[in-house]
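Handout, tutorial session.
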Amino acid sequence: MNDLFLTGASGFLGSRILGRLDPAEFSTITLLCRSEPALPEHLRDANNVRVVSAALDEVDRYADRLGPETLVVHLAAVTGKADRAEYFSVNTEATGLLIRAAERAGVAGFLFASSIAVSFRDRQGYHYADSKEQAERLLEASALPWCVLRPTIILGEGSPIWQSFHSLAQKSLIVLPGNGHTQIQPIDVDDLVRLIMDLVTDTRFNNEVLEIGGPDTLSMDDFVQRIHRACRGGRARIVHLPLALVLGPLRMVERFLPSLLPVSSGQFASFHNDGTVTANALVHPAGEPMRGIDDMLQRLTGSQNRV
């Protein structure tokens, strides 16, 4: 029986994994996080679960929890708007420290949650994606058995990206960056959690990069219209804002006063890069089917007959 070492347990994805974890499947479960996670009752009552409150770069505080029987699931990352130094400090450099600690301990497997943004063709100014790509390279160059997951847009209650699109789609007149033709392939958070746990349970650490998305591919325009219809019914009017009008001024301001901006220019990459996956066995698994976009939106909005 393996030990589990999970980082980012207090985050959006990590908290969903906690709800699915069965303590009986692991000898020990170590949760590494900077803030105390809200443990579900079945984990609070388990005597083999330990929370280590530390940052990724505080290796001395968690290294003793790594060993030859350990499976590492690394979710912790800086996301959203941050400066370039912070992305690379945490997502790349601190991940590198964890990788080296795992190497020294000879862990049995290392699963790294990356992002589909790494596959974007145009990532100018998207430091989050660049930091994730460099972390992938560190893992690939290691002596560890590893697996890299690149999920697409993750939808679920509490998902930051869902909250942004949900707010945007409430309006009758929606201003959308780009031409609206960009293709996306959203995945339900519970499906992603199930796939992650299946990989861990099967100890599938075959030194491979797996892009993970849901069963449906749709345009950005269609996605926003479906959210609007699920929430308010009917169709919204969408006005497309040319990205050149957005990115040019943003990049200029970023050079001198980045703290004044609510978003970075790199965060617009999803509006001009397709966020779809290369087919693999996890995209259309043989077992339990994955939720389609209409099912996701129905669950998230509580609508019954509008999607």
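The second record follows below. Compare its token runs with those of the first.
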Amino acid sequence: MFDRFCECEVKYIKKAPTGDGYIVYFAWHGSGRREFSRVFEQDLMWVHAKKFVFLGAGTLGTTEILLRSKQVGLPMSDQVGTRMSGNGDILGFGYNTDVVANAVAKAQPDPTHPVGPTITGIIDCRDQPNALDGFVIEEGAVPSALVPGLQLLLEATPGKIYPELGSRFQQFIRRKLSWILGPYNPGGSIERTQIYLIMSHDSNQANLVLNENNKPVIRWRGVGRSEHVKYLNKLLADATNLVGGTFVNNPFFAALGEQEVSRAGSITLSIKS
């Protein structure tokens, strides 16, 4: 039998003092309780799981709960929260190429010219002498809500890799067409932008810790600077330049560098009794 408690945020878990199972402490978000921060954080509710507790709050949420539980005495390994991976994921753009990419969605799509879902095919490069050097390149699509600001974002992103000088004039014309006639003009730069998604391997360089407010943050070390990531970015840049486009790295990393990523939110709590 499962009891489900909605609008709840698990704070930590302790062993039951009677020795049978665990006590799960949680904050209830209902009735505007979060507005009373002192009460919300300190006046916790609890439920007794008499045998087991299974944490299914995702990679970040589960680790957050475990770290808080460790603070209040729940025994666990010092490795919890360390060596987190981003799966070697890379985002990039082949901006303003010579060919129509058709990678931006429309609120009212043309059935004769559909964009389709993200990741419908891959370039499989997993067959490498060292399996950890393997990767796949996938295609992406931009939701219609993000299309109006896409050109501004890509042109403002630093660190772009441009094609040879001979393509610059055509690029200039296509950029102006997108600015003047809109992002869906087939001769413009946005309709000729390819979104790259790479899945590969990284070196597990991230740690999740609790900050001074007892909230989780991910601290990345050297992400985007490894030789493998540089190689993959160069591969995408070379492919983009060959079709007359400008390679744009992940705008968030290019603009912000390595930053802490925080997480906050509530989850649903299920207890088996």
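Points raised in discussion: Residues 2-82 form one domain.
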